[in-house]
Amino acid sequence: MNPERIFRFVLIGVFCLFSILRIRYYRLAKRAGYRTVIEESLKYSIVLSVLICYEVLTFFVYLFIPEWVSWASFSLPLWLRSVGSSLAVLALLLFLWVHRSLGRNFSNTLRIKDRHTVVTSGPYRIMRHPMYTTFYLLHISVFFLTRNWFIGLTWTAGLTLIIVLRVKREEAMMIDHFGEEYASYMEQTGRFLPLLRTRKMFKNDRGVA
After folding, report:
1. What is the pLDDT of residues 2-51, one digit of tens each?
2. Range(s) of the domain holding residue 28
3. pLDDT in tens, 63-122
């Protein structure tokens, strides 16, 4: 089979599975019936919706009208595009892990509900925002799989804008609601990647230099 076709199938499969998982856990959280006590303003939700619509649109353009974005194509060796496939699978597995750890705490907007808890299990044991890490992995894999710099750069720039707008507000909301519990959790974890000094800190707690 043509390698280009294989990589397209990988993209389609990964995005379909991402969507299925998202919908499943969204319904699980909705059925929990938790009452919202803190929620982000509408304008940030609109920015996120615009980004999602843009990504869906360009994704379908790439799949079904590729000549519209072919001007931004560039050459990549087959092994590097295969790395993109591996990153896509890794992102999918991390996405599942994140959602299983969040359970009914999941929300697709910045929202805290009355029975929410500070999740410190799974990937949240070592980083505060593994969901954003997952999406960065996915976007990097898309860059390799599509070998299209316009799609890769605009998707990643849009994701970065969303994170810049949201992450500090999200942490402020968590501190406002959970207080010292979340502030202490922040000191022990990295934001998007494991905190390198975490192991040393734990050793010091046990009296090991």
Report:
1. 888 889 999 999 999 999 998 888 888 777 666 555 566 667 778 888 89
2. 3-197
3. 999 999 999 999 999 999 999 999 999 999 999 999 999 887 787 777 777 778 889 999
Q: Is residue 208 part of a domain?
A: no
Domain at 68, CATH number: 1.20.120.1630
Residue 1, classed as helix, strand or coil, is coil
Sequence-ordered list of residues with C-beta below 8 angstroms from that of 21, at least 6 positions apart, any chain: 95, 96, 99
pTM metric for this prediction: 0.85
Q: Provide the domain count of the chain.
A: 1
Which of 128, 147, 137 is CA-nearest to residue 193?
128
| Among the listed residues 181, 193, 186, the one whose alpha carbon sits nearest the alpha carbon of residue 171 | 186
How many whole angstroms separate alpha carbon 196 and alpha carbon 199?
7
Residue 205, domain member (yes or no): no
